[in-house]
Amino acid sequence: MIRVLIVEDEPLISRLIEMNLTRAGYRCTVANDGKTAADRIEQNDYDLALLDIMLPGLDGYDLLDYLRPQGVPVIFITAKGTVKDRVEGLRRGADDYIVKPFAVEELLARVESVLRRNGRGSVMQAFDVVLDSGAHTVLQNGAPVDLTPNEFLLLEQLMRNRGAALYRDTLYERVWGGDRAETDTRTLDLHIMRLRRKLHWYDHIETVYRIGYRLKKE
Amino acid sequence: MIRVLIVEDEPLISRLIEMNLTRAGYRCTVANDGKTAADRIEQNDYDLALLDIMLPGLDGYDLLDYLRPQGVPVIFITAKGTVKDRVEGLRRGADDYIVKPFAVEELLARVESVLRRNGRGSVMQAFDVVLDSGAHTVLQNGAPVDLTPNEFLLLEQLMRNRGAALYRDTLYERVWGGDRAETDTRTLDLHIMRLRRKLHWYDHIETVYRIGYRLKKE
DNA sequence: GGGCTTTGTATCGTAGTTGTAACAGCCTTT
DNA sequence: AAAGGCTGTTACAACTACGATACAAAGCCC
Lengths: 218, 218
Description:
Two copies of one chain form a homodimer. The first copy, chain A, has helices spanning 11-23, 34-43, 60-70, 83-91, 104-117, 149-160, 168-176, 187-199; strands at 3-7, 27-31, 48-52, 74-78, 96-99, 123-126, 129-132, 137-140, 143-144, 166-167, 205-208, 212-215. By secondary structure, the first copy, chain A, is of the alpha/beta class. In chain A, β1 (3-7), α1 (11-23) and β2 (27-31) form a beta-alpha-beta unit. The radius of gyration of chain A is 20 Å and the shape is elongated.
């Protein structure tokens, strides 16, 4: 279980973050000001902290000083996306920053990326496979499976959206990058085939004709 | 149940949208201005928001900033169909836009398309059949039914507009694409037949002579 | 640079899907 | 009741999409 501390004085924002991270499988704690945040930090171990810079009482920079010695990675949340703020945050040792307003995808991506860099990630399971996005490992029945980077990304997408039919476009976009608009190549099919072969998941990964692919539920 | 937030200050328009979406099976909430919309957003989870850009108080762009972080897809409703507005809306992260005045069919089509792209398929039920547009599956008495893509789309249309007689033109347009203006082929009848046969729905799908087809209500 | 892995294109075969043609039967109007 | 248009059904041929293999290009690690 990955514990995340959210320090943010705007309830609207903190609730958004909490909701989305909780839904993504993280355990969240929210603090509205620097003082209570410091208390929480003293009493608990966190795997990640999201800090608003501008806070009543102790500000984000102060909290960073508490957290860094503990080895807790920090992502700053800042309203002003000025270069100055950004540089200042990173200079002081933040792992990343995110500018309000932000897209939820971006938030999740950064959280995951930071956790990954720090050796922590979310763990997903489907059938006989356990995928650890932090450690970048895939185990099948406890035995490691050797996947290439793209195969890993593809599997991650399928597992993250288990049961849903994912459109070819969507998969191309999420695995190969947003600029890619290919629908006429066999690349995706090829990678699906390689996944099926490596995992012996010929039945578990279902083809949805003319739509895309879907990871069986159950 | 799919929840849709409609933010629109012209009662005539908002009522029109609400009526049609409600009839199509969505649960709607209407807000007349940006402030109340923000309140609603805070207190509820929505699966989709339809935002008029020009609003008293907070405008559509402001609301977009609240909604995007939550992962709520957004469709802008704009009076001015200028290229500039469209681009601006999409650039800021809207999923789609629709220009006033609009056809109801277009509205429904865009709503559906956006929901689908965002993986929020609706689950509909009629008689012994459950259709999940997200997973792209159809179950009859719990057993999966194998439908081809066009059969699936056709069934989806019938179920979404249960009880209403759908014109042949309308069905052609929604299933086969808007550019198609064929009324002289047997294609639609053929697909209706295939649906009736696969689902044993000889009575449930009714023929409306000279008009089109209708899915029986009860 | 050499050998390895990874990736993507080209290609072919196959399975699944689709629509037209053709005809039979039905509905409605006159 | 007859005529004329509409719909139901079948069969088949064209078409599209996917699975699979081989191979070449690109990246990577010594």
